């Protein structure tokens, strides 16, 4: 069991396979020309598997694969197949571009839920956000997942003046489709040009939806990061991840392993623990893991301590989102 000083048991590990991505979304990786981590400094296939086994032996029950874009990694299939043999729930967050070619591997590994990052339902706006003309390919891949009975969650980062007017369009999508839309408050990371006036809050998201739909709350599951809701008569549902205005830190059970083998005990932590170097020196990494999680702050990495409207993003010490892992 891995626990922190506040008694929170950590049994959910997010593993970033790469900081590379075939998109260039400004809130994640703003620069078109981006210096990706050299392959030699990334966790290799067997290192990922070895570390995953250590975490599983300590009680981890769920592993989420993230990136960058995890499926652009050349050995992604090998990694997914190996992790699929572990006694955990294996899930993934992806931009959805390579779903069709990877589907046999995903199914064989027992992946039953996939989160797709999609911030707009307008092809032109999608190109503006991602700088890639792949909207229709992703929509087709979402349909493919549904056809194969894989649960789909759509991650939509809501940004005022950019896509907040599309909230009801996403809700309408759930009418005849068994998907969950996860509206995410815009969060500050290094280089993503976050300002408080771009933030669209939990209350604002709910207000926008309740203008046109009847909204009913859904009972939370243990360790939920999202507040879940349903709309009578809709096959799908929606949830709101309100990190900025109503965080879920008190029940957090998550750990993050970056693509270069650093353990972050919180998305907003200003420090990290180098597991990969220790592993390559054949040192015992378990004491490092335990020490990292034990030192976890009570909430939001100890950095986001003021109301978001007073937050100075430039004073936050962290990586860019793409190098943390979504």
Automatic annotation (TrEMBL):
Record's catalysed reaction(s): GTP + AH2 + S-adenosyl-L-methionine = (8S)-3',8-cyclo-7,8-dihydroguanosine 5'-triphosphate + 5'-deoxyadenosine + L-methionine + A + H(+)
EC number(s) given by UniProt: 4.1.99.22
Cross-referenced SMART domains: Elp3 (SM00729)
Molecular-function GO term, any one: 4 iron, 4 sulfur cluster binding
Positions with a binding annotation for [4Fe-4S] cluster 2: 249, 252, 266
Subunit note: Monomer and homodimer.
Protein name from the UniProt record: GTP 3',8-cyclase
Species of the source: Pedobacter metabolipauper
